[in-house]
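Hi all, long-time lurker, first post. I run a small reading group and we've been trying to get comfortable going from sequence to structure in the token notation. Rather than ask abstract questions, I figured I'd post a concrete chain and ask someone more experienced to write out its structure so we can walk through it together at our next meeting. Sequence below, copied exactly:
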Amino acid sequence: MRKTWITGVSATVLLASIASGCGTSTTGGASSASSSPSAKDAGTAKTTAAPAGKGKLTLYSPNAAEINNPIIKEFQDRTGIEVQLITGGTGDLLKRVQAETQNPLGDVFWAGGADSLEAYKQFFEPYTTKEIDNILPAYVDVTNVWTPFNALPMVITYNKELVSENDLPKSWKDLLDPKWKGKIAYADPAKSGSSYTQLITMLTAFGRDDGKGWEYVKKLNANLDGKLLSSSSLVQRGVPDKEFALGITLEDAAIRYIEGGSKIGVLYPSEGTSAVPDAAAIIKGSKNLSQAKQFIDFLVSKDVQELIQKEFKRRSVRKDVAPVEGLPQTKDIKLVNYDFIWSAANKNEVIKRFSKITTGQE
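-- Answer (accepted) --
Happy to help. Here is the structure in token form:
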């Protein structure tokens, strides 16, 4: 395998968005197309030709273009498999997979929060990757419905020009201070997989089962002051762009903004955070099963995992990849006791209750 990656070059793939899509969720993400293909068109849309005889693959992905493009380009170059990419928010794409059950048009879902994929596991085909022995046990799905892609700590980010050192929040609780009212960027967990993980993280930190977690969420919602964003990418851009002083977001997105020169900082809440993996899964009924398996194996191969750490500051799920330089090791970050199975099993109920809170019904 080649070890040279060209991360600044866009892949020659089709980018489309769901009509109600929320965009992608990292800096510089793939923008929505001017018009969205119908589910019928998605499976037949024209893509750039790859070497003949290697097959094709359709990916559904909430990732940003800066992550998708170099990885997909490398996969196409290595395998000759023709790739079609459909982008959108995690929630919308999962609903699309569900709606297409009778005639699946996609092959692989890559890469929403693993708890979101777990909640839709009935629509995915179990597959044990060839790299299974090299993956950290903490990130392995015991049923192999999904394969972990990277670990994603949730953080509080802040704009250094809007928040003084003396005012820095150190905890989830600090976000309830009235001085932050209307100044916190947070995405709708019904639309953003990472935001849903953040919601469960906060519920867990304060008491998921005794009601105290929901008391916290109600107070946080009041401090959002009606500014619930439609996608996680808006959170990531909102803080560097000074639209918000604080944001609840993914570690890797914040770090890439910092490396790009943005005057923002990152905090790990003192009550604890989570590092739930993003994951990929083969869509049940995939018409290109062999190619789908190749892509899953490719994602967790050592050089791809090294790439995501070096270029994207996303933590690898492999045993044999060194930690990300310049970031605290995962073992040194305080983590809540995140119940992955509970999160997946109760997603609909949690989203419904959150919606009642944001609409004033509770």
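A couple of things your group might point at:
The longest helix spans residues 65-79.
Confidence is low (pLDDT under 50) at residues 1-53.
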